[in-house]
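dude i think i finally got it to work??
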Amino acid sequence: MAKKSKKQQAGGTPATVALTAAGVDHTVHSYEHDPAHPSYGEEAAEAMGVSPDRVFKTLVADVDGALTVAVVPVSGTLDLKALAAAVGGKRAAMADPVLAERTTGYVRGGISPLGQRKKLPTVLDESAGAHPTICVSAGRRGLEVELAPADLATLTKAVLAPIGRG
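look at this
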């Protein structure tokens, strides 16, 4: 059984533990998750009072048989064709949710691009660079982390590409 750090024991998630271990400046935002809300990302933006253009959702797709993480603004959708092209693939489709949860170690609506159980190739929508900070899931529903897009890209080794549609 893996030993948990004091931070994890105190309620930290693998994502927040990874940020702290890397010494990255970040702010954790917590809010009461409403299971009846139709969109996890829009709920986060509303609860934090942040523009949906600055709140990014983490989606897991299958690109030519390989799971790939896409991080796009909640105000838009993922362009699967652009995602495939960004990683040198031909075809992309949304991954099976159960497989995405098992592979990342997070539940749907709480999948973070950080601290995943298995590190997956990651593509961050280039619109992130237009903001000094963006928010992504901190690893559970009702918990977001705000950080500089460059720090997110560095920690996840993300490719920046135009994968979102507005």
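The two ends are 44 Å apart (CA to CA).
im so relieved honestly
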